[in-house]
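Agenda item 2: FE2/S2 (inorganic) cluster complex prediction
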Amino acid sequence: MPQLIVDGYSTFEIPAGQRLVLALEGNGIDILHRCGGKARCTTCMVVFSEGEPTGMTEAEKTVLEAKGFLGQGRLSCQITVDVDMRLSPLRTVSSSGLEAGPAPLETMEPDPVWT
Ligand code: FES
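Presented output:
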């Protein structure tokens, strides 16, 4: 199982292929996902220090470009945990005072088109 190191939290073993946003939330990290994991809000953004995927969904690229965040972080709702990763979440319930948002589905939304 891939290992997920979350700076400021802990190290977790993640079932291969799980959506990153769900891997984080399932391990007690209160990451925001205000659009429900649909690549619209960017509140699920994380910054990688290891294991950043080279592939990016078209949906992720589009919203990161539109909001001026391309190159600053990645959307945890548009990434599955397939390799060891180390990262920091940027926005959480406790840091923002916002509600997390609707629960993301187990499968990626929208259907991934890889760039
Ligand atoms: S972009 Fe909204 S949860 Fe990922």
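Discussion summary: The two ends are 26 Å apart (CA to CA).
Owner for follow-up: CH.
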